[in-house]
Amino acid sequence: MKLATFMMPLHPPGKNYPQSLREDREAIILADKLGFEEAYVGEHVTDAAETVTHCMTFLASLAPVTKNIKLGTGTINVPNSHPAAIAAQVAMMDNLLEGRFIMGISPGGLASDAEVFGNFGKDRNAMFVEGINMVLKIWESEPPYNIERSEEHTSELQSRFGISYAVFCLK
Asked: For residue 8, which of 57, 37, 62, 47 has the smallest C-alpha distance?
């Protein structure tokens, strides 16, 4: 039997934040020692109880202290990030973990996160599909990328992030 774990991770609001992060790290380190195959960590920016705000940063902290367990994002909320940043960060994480990385993705489901990222009430499923298609195009192409994207999404990304698409080093 193969074992895996998924951490939201939930903590009582007001709990000591560094302590919560230490406990979550210790849980995954223990899972690695116990022979778990995979560990996934969720993220939310605005949830007071779910304290990991960027799952890839959290997982990167585990790279040097785990040996065998595959570490996965559970999930990267694609509409809340620039596709070029996702492509570059995931490529870096896969290299840091030397093949032990699993990329989990979603359109995001927490309304307060959607609100702070400016996509509340918008079609996050369409933004998700377009965003992940851009990530895949970046990975399979060489510059210039000539990525097709909707005008609505392009103007929204440019107004939110203030940049156009650029990835300088993925390999």
From this structure: 47
Single-letter code of the amino acid located at 100: R
Residue type, 78: V
Q: Are 40 and 6 in contact (CB under 8 A)?
A: yes
Q: Can you give the pLDDT of all 171 residues of the chain as single tens digits? A: 999 999 987 899 999 999 999 999 999 999 999 999 999 999 999 998 888 999 999 999 999 999 999 999 999 999 999 999 999 999 999 999 999 999 999 999 899 999 999 999 999 999 999 999 999 999 999 988 877 767 665 555 555 555 443 333 333
Closest CA to 125 of 98, 142, 105: 105
